[in-house]
Structures are given as structure tokens and as C-alpha cells.
Amino acid sequence: EWHVLPPLTINYGVRFDKVSAFVDEQQWSPRVNVLYKLSEGTAVHAGYSRYFTPPPQELAAQSSIDLYANTTNAPQIAASDNVKAERTHYYDAGISHKMGNWTLSADAYYKKISNMLDEGQFGQALILTPFNYAQGRAKGLELSALYTEKEWGGYLNVSTQKAQGKQIVSGQALFGAEEVAYIADHYIYVDHDQKVSVSGGAHYHFGDSQLSADFLYGSGLRMTPDGAAPNSGSLPHYTTVNTSLTHTWKDTPVGRIEGRLAVINLFDKSYLLRDGSGVGVGAPQYGARRTLYAGLSTSF
User: Fold this and answer.
1) Please, are residues 13 and 2 in contact by the beta-carbon 8 Å criterion?
2) Which of 21, 39, 98, 258 has its CA 20 to 30 A from that of 121?
3) What are the residues whose beta carbons fall under 8 Å from the beta carbon of 165, sequence distance 6 or more?
4) pLDDT category, 207, cuts 50, 70, 90?
5) Over the stretch 118-142, which tens digit does the pLDDT of each residue have?
């Protein structure tokens, strides 16, 4: 960390990563971030980072597709390269402003990605398999507001994003021939891309207890309409609301104990996360229905 001038701070560093397993790769990853205080309550920042992300080893399959040659389970594509580490150029810029009990911020980012990692569920088994797109790009904007007081507070986040990949370069045997041919020449939305997300919540302290609630709105994940390009459509939007109550008993024979009751999906909304179509989506999936959790915790 370098304090160049009283309002100007520069953070910088470099990291080295190496993976030697199903692939043998390495990378030096520099990063630099510049923070400038325009006033006592306002600051702007901009930064660049290089990232190296190996695939999850517990999910990377090492079996050969040659075992299925001349069988009814033979793949359409007789090639399946090993999954590779993802390499990313990450650019970020934003501004924050503190005004009384409010903190407002805006942050924008852009990612240029080589060997972009994704995970798919192929078939009926709920087991994810990683694969790579040769090229990837992602960009987004997030707006946030935070309010804090002694006894209560709240927050609101609004974000929009766009994430796309092109040309599948590992695990090709998991896909259909037409799908791979189209993606080789076209950027497509990745299956976890969601155009708009909104989240918010509030909490209130009274005595040794706290009551809180939060919500999440999503514009819908990707799907593939009949006869259309892969992942070119969106599922319906959804909203969920959660609540919780916590209470702390400070003096007990075993010390401090915290109890918690939480209700997930308070209004028991049924919403679709996947419809069984799309790249790497093998079966429909729904969000969790109304669920009640209760628990006690203490520290020793």
C-alpha cells in the first residue's frame, strides 16, 4: 500500500499460481488499485487484476470416452479435451459517497476471459461437470445503498450483468454436434447469466433480540427456446422473501447462547431456476419451498 498523497492511495501486488494435476499450468497475476478521496465522504476507485482459477479438482473427470466407442452411449463428438484453468483480465471502477447515515455506491466492471470455466449438469444425475469456453466476456453495474442507525438499518442492491462465452474447448463429448458447431462461431449467454438482480433487507434490534427480513428479485436465468440459439431465452422472473428472529442469552451455565429462527421463502412461492433446456442443463430445477430453520449456538 502506497500513500502517494493524502487523498491518493495505491494498492498493488503480484501472485503466482501453479496447478499440476489433470493439467499443468501456471501464471503470474499482477494487480493494482487506485483510490482517490474527492472529499471527506466521497471516494472514487479504479483497478486492474489478473486472475488464475483452476477447475475444481473434485469435479474434473479423468475417464476416457474411448470406453463408449461402438456402443449406444457413444458421444456425437469423439473428442474431449481436459478442462483448463481460467485466466481473466478484470477491470473495475466505482464511486462511493457517505451522507449522514447513508452510504451510496456505484461500481462497474469488465472481464476479458480466456478458457472461461463453466459447469454443466449432463444427464439426470445432479452432478456438475466443468468445461471451458475458449473466450469469455462479462460486464456489469451494481448500485448500492446502505442505511445504519444504532437500533436498525437496511440495504438495497440493484445490479445488471451480461456474461457470454464462445467456442467449447474441453469436454466436447458432453455436447451435441450442432450445439458445439454453433458455439464455435457465436458468443452465447452462459446458463447462469441473469440480466437484473435486486436484493434488499432491514433489521431491528430490541434488547437482546433482532428481527430481520430480506428479499431477492431475479429477472430469470437463461433457457433455450425451441429452434432458437442456445441460451437465447430467459425464464420468468421471481421474488423470494426471508425472515429471521435471533435472541441472545448472555448468562447461562454454558456461557453465551444465541438462538435463531429463520423462515426461507416466507410466501412459499414456487419458481423455476432451470427448465431442462440450455447449455449444460440436464433437468428442471426449482427454488426451495417454504422452510423453517431453528438453531442454538454457543462458543467454547
Assistant:
1) no
2) 21
3) 113, 116, 118, 133, 135, 136, 183, 187, 188, 190
4) very high
5) 998 876 677 788 999 999 999 999 9
Instruction: Name the residue with cell 421474488.
Output: 239
Backbone angles phi, psi at 9, to 5 degrees: -130, 135
Q: Give the torsion sign (CA, 123, 181, 79, 170).
A: negative
Alpha-carbon gap, residue 109 to 260, rounded angstroms: 37
Inform me whether the pLDDT recorded for 293 exceeds 80: yes
Phi, psi (5° rounding) for residue 38?
-75, -35
Q: What is the mean pLDDT of the chain?
A: 92
Spans of all domains in the chain: 2-298
Q: Which triple of cell numbers denotes residue 277?
A: 433446456
The three-class DSSP label of residue 183 is helix
Tell me, rounded to whole angstroms, the distance of Cα 96 from its chain centroid.
23
Residue 183, phi then psi, degrees to nearest 5: -70, -25
pLDDT at residue 79, rounded to an integer = 76
| CATH 2.40.170.20 at 2-298, yes or no | yes
Mean pLDDT of 66-82: 70
C-alpha cell at 117: 470455466
